Amino acid sequence: MAHLLVVDDESSIRLLYEQELAEEGHRVTTAATAAEAVEKLGTGTFDLVLLDIKLKNESGIDLLQKIVKERHELPVILSTAFSFYKDDFSAWLADGYVVKSSDLSELKAEIKRVLARKKPVKSDK
Prior knowledge:
Layout: E1 3-7, H1 11-23, E2 27-31, H2 34-43, E3 48-52, E4 54-55, E5 58-59, H3 60-70, E6 76-80, E7 96-99, H4 105-117
Parallel strand pairs: 1-2, 1-3, 3-6, 6-7
Antiparallel strand pairs: 4-5
C-alpha cells in the first residue's frame, strides 16, 4: 500500500492513526512538529501527508504551503478538529479535508479517494 506521513502534535492521535492505518496495510511514519515533518520529507519518499492544521506554536497551513511549493506532486489531506477551516482559501491547497473523529472511516475513505486520484510516488524507504 502507501507510505503515509502523519503530522500531528497530539501523541494519542499519531498513535491512533499509525495503528489504524497500518492495519489498512499502509506504512506510516509520524512527526510531531512541522520541522520534524520537513526533515522526514527530505529523507524519505511518501505517497501522502496527513496534516493537522493546528500544531503547537506552528501552522499546518504554513507547512501545507511549503509542501505544495516544493513537492507539488505529493498529496496532502488536512485533518483538524475544526470544520470552519474548510472555508479558508489556504486550506483549498490540500487534496482532502477531514474533521477529526473517533470513527476513522471518513479518514480512511478520504485517504483511499486521494490516493486513487493521484498517481502515488513509489516508496523506497
